Amino acid sequence: MGRRATRLLSGLVLLTVVGAGAFWWLTKPAPWDATHWEGLGEPDLADGERVFWAGGCTSCHAAPGAKDDARLVLAGGRPLKSPFGTFYPPNISPDETAGTGSWTLAEFGNAMTRGVGKNGEHLYPSFPYGSYARMTVKDINDLWGYMRTLPKSANVAPPHDLPFPYNIRLALGGWKLLYLTDAPRVDVNAADAKLARGQYLVEGPGHCGECHTPRNALGGFEADRWLAGAPNPEGEGRIPDITPGSKSIGSWSASDIVSYLETGFTPDFDSVGGSMVEVQKNMAKLPASEREAIAAYLKALPPS
Amino acid sequence: MKIRAFMLAAVLAGLGVTAVTAADEPQAVRQQLMKKVGQATGALSGIAKGEKPYDAEIVKASLSTISETVKMFPSHFPAGSETGMETEASPKIWQNMDDFEAKAAKLGSDADKFLAQLPSDQAGVGAALGVLGKDCGSCHESYRLKKE
């Protein structure tokens, strides 16, 4: 090998190392500074329960087929199919070994809003931290307090079943760099308290966009089609458009939406179906004012 | 002449058959049945919400419609009716026919239970509707696909 070739090769190696280093530095897990989670005081447990239902934690983290009070046992293990493979939501019950019993508020908060696990690893965005990123520290603190009052489970959920390249956690840093944001998804009149509340609930804890907004090939939201409907990630059928431009629900009034979220009945007395059944059960547990705020926000969205 | 008459008859018969089948296809029949359940549910909801006055006859008729309709509902899913005519039926119905039938039967028996002890006021109708609505949702959760 000539001297030039050697120099070229070592240059390439150096470039690769620097490039990889830069990628790592740009995309490494980024928890908040410890101070972010300090001084929040005692959690308000009643408020934490409200956040719990708004966030729909139990829809994914309860054991498969769990009903009624069993939904409060966040044992994990229910398969969540997606175009990227099958995810198995973990046990997040307060069990010290199998669950989150040994976690701190900061560890929980960084998982919720930055997608960083207890061991500093990137979490998959199947856990909707891309939406929870918008949640206030108060809501996180209250939710954490409430979750610690729930029953423990010793269940250990199976690991995610993902084909290459989706099984490479490091790559998630790239996904976050491209798509993780806590900015509002659409412009609504933020001076209107009801609208602002609805925006927070839908875009943040409610994580409605995770299913109702279409995604590109890398799994990022198609930002200009916010809540405009998408293929069902779990298989056949579609998740409907819920903007005022929707063929199915665009004609619903705000009170139709409120009534649907409360009772599960559409204005023509069809009923809620598919994965929305779980969501509606959760929404029915919220105060009426929260459902009214959600409806106001949906009616104020730009039509698809 | 004879041939012409025969052909005309054949064409007319053909048209007739198509006209009958369109409405008779299982997909169309079950859509009609679900609409009937929806209308009955709507009548109950009007009372539950206080938009309409309580009327024992309407409550009874609505519950009977739901009970009778949903009991015959699962017999309209023969092989070959899995797709077409904008059906929202999930393929899972044919994979889990027993469970599908059990879910329909649950709504039927819950409706019968309320018929045997008719809700006597607005609040009673609301409570009944809560139970029936859960039955609707638990079947639609697994077995109905939205297409749009």
Automatic annotation (TrEMBL), chain A:
Keywords: Heme, Iron, Kinase, Metal-binding, Transferase. Gene3D superfamilies: Cytochrome c-like domain. It holds the Pfam family Cytochrom_C. GO terms for molecular function: electron transfer activity; heme binding; kinase activity; metal ion binding. Residues 43-151, 193-302 form the Cytochrome c domain. This is Diacylglycerol kinase. It comes from Sinorhizobium glycinis.
TrEMBL record, chain B:
GO terms for biological process: electron transport chain. Heme c binds at residues 136, 139-140. Keywords: Electron transport, Heme, Iron, Metal-binding, Signal, Transport. One of its GO terms (cellular component) is periplasmic space. The keyword Iron applies. Residues 1-22 form the signal peptide. One of its GO terms (molecular function) is iron ion binding. It comes from the Bacteria. Pfam families: Cytochrom_C_2. Binds 1 heme group per subunit. InterPro entries: Cyt_c/b562 (IPR010980), Cyt_c_II (IPR002321), Cyt_c_prime (IPR012127), Cyt_c_prime_subgr (IPR015984). This is Cytochrome C556. It comes from Sinorhizobium glycinis.
